[in-house]
Amino acid sequence: MSGATGHALAIERLSKRYGSFTAVADVSLAVGQGEFLTLLGPSGSGKTTILMCIAGFVAPSEGAIRLDGRDITALPPERRDFGMVFQGYALFPHMTVAENVAFPLRVRKLGAAEREAKVRAALDLVQLSAFGDRLPRQLSGGQQQRVALARALVFEPALLLLDEPLSALDKKLRAELQDELKALHRRIGRTFVNVTHDQEEALSLSDRVAILNHGKLIQQGAPAELYERPATRFVADFLGKSNFLHGTVREVFAGGFAIGAGSTRVVTAAADSPPLGSQVLLSLRPEKMALLAEGETAENSVTGIIESWSYLGAGYALNVAVPDFGTLRITLSTWNAPIAPREGLALRLGWSAAASVPVLDDAP
Amino acid sequence: MMTHQPGPFARISAGVVALYLLLPISIIIPVSMTDQRFLSLPKEALSLQHYATVLTSPEWLASIWQSFLIAIAATAIAVIAGTLCAIGCWRLSRRSTDLIRALMLLPIIIPSIVYAIGLYRYFAGLDLLDRFMGVALAHGVTGIPYVVITVSTALAAFDPRLEQAARGMGASLMQTLRWVILPRITPGILSGGIFAFIHSWDELVIVLFIASRDVFTLPRRIWDGINENLDPAMAAVAVLLVVFTTGLLLLDLMLRRRRAE
């Protein structure tokens, strides 16, 4: 099953309404050949509805879905040739593992010898060769997940759709299978579309992530791009953690601008600056601030007092009360930490102009 | 965990109800083994002569055989129609399908004598009176509710994602039905079939109306026998019927237990 080429998928102005409820509102997305795209969003964001539209189980109210340019919007699911891993796997409980994996081939009326060879290859691919005769209920969650993967890939589908494939597993196993899934994608070079509400999973697996909220596409891009340059407050908050600084634009200069809030001035880097006097919101990641030693300077600095703190193993999370901005969250590595945190401790925080990003305030 | 022990009142009433259910059935066992020539309890010795009479009489054997064939045909009709109806309602699952499912229970709700009068009128026009096909059809249709109930129950426990998965992998509706849905609901279908069979096997009222001479089922022969002469052979037949029906119910119980595993 190597050497196969992926297919390109395009979603054009897709909408889905249920009565007066809009599940998906005017979403356009393109998935390139061999790309791993993740639809990320909280529950009710419309991500699963989009996946079901791609699979053909839900008919869109408006818009089109194209595979390599061909309109497949009206094609029933059984004629789309897409592999799918369902939430909870949906393995056939009355069939053995091998029979489950053979099902798509049986449907396609393949000869017994060819069928057997392909089933063996698919089970090898997910390292379950020894489990062909077991029933699904005799397998662990992780093994069932792999059977579902083998079954979805055995007929060399044009596209692999994954509906929260790892959500039923415990945290350690999830990390393991994330790595496996990523390696599998690299190895077979097919186009994957994944749905999840787990931002870590989205960041680590995907070539590209599309973030959805309330049925709308908020932002899409490579994981690092989304994390480093979130377009809106929702994206900055949903993908990782962020502090938000409210202020008024006071100065504009080449490559950035400065905001003021009370008596505090903060400079930020930006390609194009908002007009003077406008209200803006900056996103500032907790790990992008540092503690400043005596006499040390930074492009931005504020003084504050530790309100509360927690020990997280690899790092400390400090909540620092700062004049004009409320409470800022900052994370420090515990290894060689410059201070021993305690409540009421006064400290100085600094960050560079490039650390903060202006974001659209789309909070409700 | 605390378990509540039943009190004396509950124990006694449970016992009374059980006796109430079992006594009329158990009384026919000694009666069927009477040494007398009329319906009575045995006087001097137990005798199997009435069983011999039944099992060698061409009339009784013909009726048993005819009842059996009718029940088989009626079960086939009820199982096919009832299963398809239940699957259809399940797949569409709208408010209108709930109504259809309720309509399917009508043969149980309507008194069979009313139903039989209606059938009599229609079957006269269709030349189905006193025909094997007529009785099989009538029993088949009135057996549908049992199948609809058991199959619907089995489908309620069926994960709809399995159907989606099958279709997503390219299976047509027929392939999905044959390879995924039917294997999962077979116990429900068998259960419904057993009930439909029993329903036809001991149905009398409809037969009284739409059959007369050519179709003479076992319940009909027992009925006539009681009306004409009180032959103890009837008790023997009744015992055979009870044994047969109990056997079917035990089979159903066994199937259910297998499904529960």
Automatic annotation (TrEMBL), chain A:
Keyword Isomerase part of the UniProt annotation: no
UniProt KW keywords: ATP-binding, Cell membrane, Membrane, Nucleotide-binding, Translocase, Transport
The ABC transporter domain, residue ranges: 9-239
Enzyme class: translocase
TM region(s), chain numbering: none
Its EC number(s): 7.6.2.11
Subunit structure: The complex is composed of two ATP-binding proteins (PotA), two transmembrane proteins (PotB and PotC) and a solute-binding protein (PotD).
Protein name as annotated: Spermidine/putrescine import ATP-binding protein PotA
Protein's organism: Falsiroseomonas oleicola
Automatic annotation (TrEMBL), chain B:
This protein's UniProt keywords: Cell inner membrane, Cell membrane, Membrane, Transmembrane, Transmembrane helix, Transport
Main location: membrane
Chain ranges passing through the membrane: 12-33, 64-90, 102-123, 135-158, 179-198, 233-255
Top-rank taxon: Bacteria
Domain ABC transmembrane type-1 positions: 64-252
PROSITE patterns: ABC_TM1
Key word Transmembrane helix present: yes
Presence of keyword Mitochondrion: no
Subcellular location: Cell inner membrane; Cell membrane
Protein name from the UniProt record: ABC transporter permease
Topology of this chain in the membrane: Multi-pass membrane protein
Family to which this protein belongs: Belongs to the binding-protein-dependent transport system permease family.
